[in-house]
Amino acid sequence: MPSVRDVRAKAGNEPITMLTAYDAPTAEIVDEAGIDVILVGDSVGNVALGYETTVPVDVDDIARHTATVTRATEEALVIADMPFLSYGTDEQTSLENAGRMLKEAGAEAVKLESGPHTVSLTEKMVQLGIPVMAHLGLTPQHVNQYGGYPRQGTDQAAAERILELALAHEDAGAFSLVLEHVPANLARDVTAALDIPTIGIGAGPHCDGQVLVFHDAVGLSEWTPSFSKQFGDVRGEMQKAVDDYVAAVETGEFPAEEHSHEESDLDSLY
Ligand code: KIV
Asked: Are strands 77-81 and 37-40 parallel, antiparallel or unpaired?
């Protein structure tokens, strides 16, 4: 089982693979594929819980889904994504919420959507034994401030701020950094400036690793961002199976003889 140290050691050496998972069968599939890291993302809100954004996701949601994923995972490193306002307000609550993910749900690390407000918090968590993956660029919990999901780091000042914050989180002890929806040349420069690995999503090919939302990667989402890629058509397969089931019940084709049994010792009841 890789530890956060193993993931950190891959920086500049071997590409790091990371996908989200929120339930047991998905975690098993992803783990069996040999993925390095499973993220129990707060994207569970959009892709599985029926919310428009990740804002309504709470600590109990992430704790329950993380515990489900850790029960089904044998090899990959499992990281719990701290939801909106579960951290960064006051330190005590932030530490208790993050601590739950390790103590109760079995995660090995947490991810924080990062900013100036998470530098000292990251340091404190790491001191206490809670490994932290930082996350800069597009931080979807700010959707209401952005008014959508725009690219980040597109002008010089914004790019410099991202680099500064990346270095600050590395200094604070983060073991890796997600870079979301930033220009590939900025991701390249940040990756070169850091010793810890960068994991990109919509950040081009120069990061140390890549992450996608599972539902986007396998083609289960109705909509996927332009920077993502569908590696399958799971939605189409599921739709076809359900259509076939409905048709088979309606035509009486299912259940067939092999799906039922008659008990010869049973007398007719009427
Ligand atoms: O919640 C999530 O799935 C994420 C990844 C996209 C990085 O934060």
From this structure: parallel
Nearest Cα residue to atom 3 of ligand 1: 41
- Is the pTM above the cut of 0.85? yes
The DSSP symbol for 155 reads S
The pLDDT tens digits of the residues spanning 181-224 come to 999 999 999 999 999 999 999 999 999 999 999 999 999 998 89
Q: At 114, which amino acid appears?
A: S
> Is 268 a residue whose pLDDT tops 90?
no
Question: For the chain, what are the domain ranges?
Answer: 4-232
Domain boundaries 4-232, corresponding CATH code: 3.20.20.60
Return the best residue to mutate from 20, 178, 220 for the ligand 1 pocket (most ligand atoms within 8 A of CB): 20
pLDDT of residue 269: 84
Q: How many whole angstroms separate alpha carbon 146 and alpha carbon 213?
A: 21
Q: How far apart are CA 220 and CA 235, in angstroms?
A: 4
Question: Ligand 1: which of 78, 86, 213 to mutate, judged by most atoms within 8 Å of the beta carbon?
Answer: 213
Of 124, 120, 134, whose CA–CA distance to 190 is shortest?
134
Look at the alpha carbons of 11, 13, 15, 16 in this order and tell me if their dihedral is positive or negative: negative
Bridge partners (DSSP) listed for residue 81: 111
262 φψ region: left (φ > 0), alpha (ψ -120 to 50), beta (else): beta
- Other beta carbons within 10 Å of 156: 9
